[in-house]
């Protein structure tokens, strides 16, 4: 193959034919998968020593798999220096190889054992990852808030609120910390990147222009990132955004009852399309924000990022794009497109409903549950469409924080699974038909 490639290259050169320039989307993909945009948090050796925090006597033989299982990470489908998606080799100290984070920590997921860039990571325990790697790297750091209340969700909004509190409007570092209304109980599920292509506004409350390049750069607010670093990276993120809006969802891999799906399409059109759009050759998406009192789902994410942060963000470098793309207050949660919905369990903005069957039948939603947090075929429920779970009692006070995060307790703040009861009036057969149709999207 190498000889063939060399021969082709020589042939192009000899005829004077130049290879096509990469598109913005192709450039963005290459940059996203290869460049480090923030400095390292840990020395690279922390990866190899993390197992000493697991309560085991010796390093597991299949260490990469054991590491990924511990923290809910997945193999990288691109060259990544032997690290899983989400971790990235990055500058640390002089002569010391370092390791940091990238976007795929949260936006690199797995379904049926296959890794996908742009699929939300519904297995991640980022809090335990930081804690263990700090100890393994001999770094005396204490996390400033809870990064993960329940495994598979994270406090993405809290990261932005906290980190912007250390920045002036021009993103230079402040000497004093501004509390912009930090809350760490939103329990955010990670939406799929491929949904961005249809959206005019993004994030769960629909407050941000979906074509804002600077908004997707908020994760760069590492304490050692300088203002000039943001400015240098902006063009790259323009390309990265172009890649994000060109990602396609994976197709449902199992058999579909087409006759049942056709019946489901009719029911979907009558009951769901006004908020979630239509699909097929003449697809539409209304980009609707549903008032919080109408949708009735957990209010924490809606309430937790408030006026203080909004005002600080509105006067910051992030809002000074050209043309301007200001954030705006909204009244509730944005009803998302449903492309690839079969792959994006669990459901709702807080991941409180493990299957589509539960989305369409509020009485079928488990109250306290856990799952394997693996993503193989045996972990997937192809009938209810989502993750297989088992109901368990609430965690006792003696359960470790690591194990407690494996239990999703819908009675806890930010984790309510009520609301969105629009499918309750359907019969069981009608719900099965709608689910069959959703597999086709």
TrEMBL record:
GO terms for molecular function: cytochrome-c peroxidase activity; electron transfer activity; heme binding; metal ion binding. Keywords: Heme, Iron, Metal-binding, Signal. Residues 259-441 form the Cytochrome c domain. Residues 1-20 form the signal peptide. InterPro entries: Cyt_c-like_dom, Cyt_c-like_dom_sf, Cytochrome_c_Peroxidase/MauG. PROSITE patterns: CYTC. This is Cytochrome c domain-containing protein. It comes from Limnoglobus roseus.
